[in-house]
Amino acid sequence: MTLEAIRYHNGTLEILDQLLLPLETKYIPILGVEDGWKAINKMQVRGAPAIAIVGCLSLAVEISKEEFEKKKTLRREVEGKLNYLISARPTAVNLKIAADELMNLVNALDRDDSVSATEMQARFISEIERMLEKDIADNKAIGEAGCNLILNSLLSTNGGEISVRVLTHCNTGSLATASYGTALGVIRALHSSRRLEHVYCTETRPYNQGARLTAFELVHDKIPATLICDSAVSALMKSKSIAAVIVGADRVAGNGDTANKIGTYQIAVTARYHSIPFYVAAPFTSIDFSIVNGENIQIEERPDREMTHIGKYRIAAPGINCWNPAFDVTPAELITAIITEKGVFKPSELRTMEPS
Ligand code: MRU
């Protein structure tokens, strides 16, 4: 059985409710943009690529139920609803970039007199449907590029047969994407090529994406894995000969500074101290060339309750103040390379590149 976070077929959308995992596997219907916004905001679906896909598909579902006499009406509705969807969670850039691309398409179709309103509607919907396929293909390419990178860099120092132990943080797998995953895609590729000795995944407090979701995927795929507390990272690096850290990204700035799940930054600092390569694996659409550095990335702060409770159980002393940023920014200088479907780049190389 393949793990599917997103099920879409002919205008019908369902998502796996990730708030219930790993105890319950339940799909919930997304009937339109309002449902999409809520599911993203409440984190029933999460992970930068999955947020973008579910956001856009929720709009496709809504638009497919309507009839448009005028192209202008369709264009206005698409623009307003995409802006609304982007507001559900601010840090990941993938939905914003997908929305910009969709608006370019809609504007071009609006200007083209040979295109009717009905045709514009159909082309808009099929462009969104294409995103699912593209994301899977991109993730496979990221997986292969990351696997080759890690193995080649070790072959040059070790030579001969190698198998590696790696560390990952948060959830970047099938549950965070259309399928396969980014950082977890690299780990899947290492495993398929029989080069993965072991993967360690952090719990990823406070929402526990590692313990609940990554561990779920690793057990599901029978990949040799061990869960560690977030606070065990330095001890792990000191004692277990970790070949690489591989994480995902919510937004990479033009200089390579990378926003990812809270805790990523301290793992990168620790990796540098232990001379362990630190890789970011992400689709090219996670790179936001419009911002110069990480200081311009808006960091989402989540409700205290995610820290004070696990499910319905309170675990923190009543009355305590909380600070709950969902992401942090790892400075480019701590990142060995950024692995994308378009190639592997040193952070400094991004400065010379153009968005495509
Ligand atoms: O708050 P989340 O669970 O949406 O955060 C997810 C992450 O930080 C992931 O590492 C990132 O989105 C990449 S997912 C392929």
UniProtKB/TrEMBL annotation:
Q: Where is this site: Transition state stabilizer?
A: 170
Q: Where in the cell is it found?
A: Cytoplasm; Nucleus
Annotated active site residues, numbered on this chain, are: 250
In which domain of life is the source organism classified?
A: Eukaryota
The pathway is:
Amino-acid biosynthesis; L-methionine biosynthesis via salvage pathway; L-methionine from S-methyl-5-thio-alpha-D-ribose 1-phosphate: step 1/6
What is the predominant subcellular site recorded for this chain? cytoplasm
EC number of this enzyme: 5.3.1.23
List keywords of the entry alphabetically.
Amino-acid biosynthesis, Cytoplasm, Isomerase, Methionine biosynthesis, Nucleus
Listed GO CC annotations: cytoplasm; nucleus
- InterPro entries under this entry? IF-2B-related, IF-M1Pi, IF_2B-like_C, Initiation_fac_2B_a/b/d, M1Pi_N, NagB/RpiA_transferase-like
A GO BP annotation: L-methionine salvage from methylthioadenosine
Molecular function via GO: S-methyl-5-thioribose-1-phosphate isomerase activity
Enzyme class at the top of the EC tree = isomerase
| Catalysed conversion reaction | 5-(methylsulfanyl)-alpha-D-ribose 1-phosphate = 5-(methylsulfanyl)-D-ribulose 1-phosphate
Protein purpose: Catalyzes the interconversion of methylthioribose-1-phosphate (MTR-1-P) into methylthioribulose-1-phosphate (MTRu-1-P).
Regarding protein family, the annotation reads:
Belongs to the eIF-2B alpha/beta/delta subunits family. MtnA subfamily.
Q: What is this protein called?
A: Methylthioribose-1-phosphate isomerase
